[in-house]
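Data availability (excerpt). The following record was deposited with the supplementary files.
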Amino acid sequence: HWSSCDFERWSARWTESGTQMAPDSPTRTSREEIRAAMEPVFDLYDHKMSVQPRDARLAADWGFVRGEFTHELSSKENGAGSRRVGKFLTIVEKQDDGTWKISCDCFNYNAPVQEDDR
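Predicted structure:
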């Protein structure tokens, strides 16, 4: 299932103290750090994402999801793009209102980025 990514919707899925461990980047340790690092990427590219969860477990107020993803980027300026296939492990935390938000996300790619290979 493919979906387009909206920055505000995407960033609202994180807890205030969320941690993002992305490839080739320092660890980001708050929603504000994550937003500051990712907003320019969302400004420059259209994103499409397909996520295939392989395992998910919940226990009281915590849980995790493990799986694979395909992420396609297309330049808003000239349409050039890239395709990334990888895997992830995401820890979620139940909020006071009953919703679940991302507490920690770690992901990496199965191979180097494939430019214009969509």
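Summary of structural features: The first helix runs from residue 7 to 12.
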